[in-house]
Amino acid sequence: MSEDVQSLAKRRGFIWQSAEIYGSMAGFYDYGAMGARLKRNWENVWLKYFMGLNDNYHLIDSTNILPEAALKASGHVDSFTDPLVECTKCGHAFRADQLIEEATSTAAEELSLEEIDAKVSEIGLACPKCKGPFGKAMFFNMMFPIEVGTKGTDRAYLRPETAQGAYLNFKRHFEIMRRKLPLGLAIIGKAYRNEIAPRQGVYRMREFIQAELQIFMDPETFSDELDLSEMDGKEILVQLVDMRGKKDVQSMPCRYLIEQYKLPDFYVYHMLKVQEFYLDIIKIPKNKFRFYEKSEKERAFYNRVHFDIEVDLSTLGGFRELAGLHYRGDYDLTKHQIGSKEKMEVSLDGRKLIPHVLELSFGVDRNVWALLDIHLVDERTGVLKLPPQLAPYTFAVFPLMKKDELIPLAKEIHNLLKDDYDVCYDQSGSIGKRYARMDEIGTPFCITVDFDGLTDDTVTLRDTDTTEQKRVKVDELERIARGLASGKLKFKDLN
Ligand code: GAP
After folding, report:
1. Where does 308-396 have alpha helices with state H?
2. How would CATH label the architecture of 393-493?
3. Do residues 120 and 85 lie in contact, with contact meaning Cβ atoms separated by under 8 Å?
4. Tens digit of each residue's pLDDT (9 = 90 or more) over 421-472
5. SS3 assignment, position 96
6. 289: three-class secondary structure by DSSP
7. Which residue CA neighbors atom 18 of ligand 1 most closely?
8. How far, in whole angstroms, is CA 243 from its chain's centroid?
9. Quick one: how far is CA 443 from the chain centroid?
10. Is CATH 1.10.3430.10 what the domain over 81-141 is classified as, yes or no?
């Protein structure tokens, strides 16, 4: 990971390792004041966009601790594992597939334990710490076990994904929401994985945040609920399995993916929605975005279709996964029906079915990091250019100088805007330093009260993107702020 961006993120109050004063543990991070605002804004934008897809999509919340029985039924107790090799000399443990991938530059995700052992001896892989030999590869379960109660008899785990909370709550919500499909249940919250090799900062953490939407649907009628004509003439940026090694990304018409590649139309429709989210709202440049298809061997066996959503991040050395779009079929509810003996089957128009799940799964921390990576336009000057809805502060209000004449109007403007937007008020230090500080944390617009403005009721409005300043009437500020914050009004279009 780029040291520069990491130290900038720390210095500017975004994100750093947790429990720093005790030396920190690998894989745990805290958000500072700017990071917490940025993260919250990303979550709000995500919620607004994806809950807006259907009136029957809802945000719920569920516990971080789940009983063993639920995770046994979901398959996590037996198979939520990564392959591990341990050095027989110093005892250090490593993720076997990652070591092999680094040594050979070929994918090793799907290797069996026997294949890993064979590969380790074939390429003479030794411990990167002490050069000692490795023992036999073994599977390591990544869940954190928890003992509940004074005697610790109720075995439980920290949830490895938020998705399970939605599956466990499906039946109750289906009843509450008047027995309609599609039903979407979204959860934003912590997930926990005891990663063997947490690394690359927030990319592989042991405690992280997911924003997941589980869409429960009838695969035979789901498409009728969607306006498929939205796909007409639209293209998706993809790297398909059969394009690997040839082209990083290809732009393909939605219809072509449906007709030639036999992807379900509802799946491609959601690819388009996810792509619009990243390109239009998060403002990821087109050339840095792609859907990466997972092969049958690479994807979880219950995923019928699986593309990762990847963004090219210079701090992480290329295209990296930020999210996934998974068509999981009826796997999850079927497993919980068997495990809990509660019926997950529903009746719709005389038809009985176990609903299928289309899962939109996003890693919040990785997405927040991507914002810093993509929008840090100049590492030398450190200017961060965040979209207004995402920036920790949308506006900053300053009196030009700390003078009694200027402060009342500046405070009045701050009060006018602060209930509706994230607004920073600052009156100390030189104006140049205050602008520079806002440039560093990605505040798109600064409003400054100066002496001229006191006579003609104007203030200056500065655009971080261009550093251009325009004079605007104080009584126009509310309207202008609304337009700029929503993105409907562009600074360049202001007179
Ligand atoms: N419910 C499906 C699921 O959990 P996943 O691919 O394991 O799928 C979804 O995780 C997303 O969560 C990933 O695309 C990634 O953004 C994020 N994620 C997964 N493991 C992570 C980790 N160790 N650290 C940070 N983010 C992680």
Report:
1. 331-340, 364-375
2. 3-Layer(aba) Sandwich (3.40)
3. yes
4. 999 999 999 999 999 999 999 999 999 999 999 999 999 999 998 999 999 9
5. helix
6. strand
7. 363
8. 26
9. 21
10. no
Token pair listed for 346: 């529903």
Q: What is the pLDDT of residues 167-180, one digit of tens each?
A: 999 999 999 999 99
- Which residue CA neighbors atom 2 of ligand 1 most closely? 361
Q: What are the domain boundaries of the chain? A: 2-67+150-377, 81-141, 393-493
Closest ligand 1 atom, CA of 163?
1
- What does the pLDDT look like over 292-309, one tens digit per residue? 999 988 898 899 999 999
Q: Which atom of ligand 1 sits closest to the CA of residue 308?
A: 14
Pocket test for ligand 1, best of 188, 210, 310 (most atoms within 8 A of CB): 210
Q: How does DSSP assign 15-62, residue by residue?
A: EEETTGGGT--TT-EEE-HHHHHHHHHHHHHHHHHHHTT-TTEEE---
Tell me the two tokens of residue 256. Answer: 């072509």
On whether the CB atoms of residues 269 and 258 are closer than 8 A, the answer is no
User: Is any ligand 1 atom within 6 A of the Cβ of residue 310?
Assistant: no
- Residues contacting residue 65 through CB under 8 Å, at least 6 positions apart: 146, 148, 156, 157, 158, 159
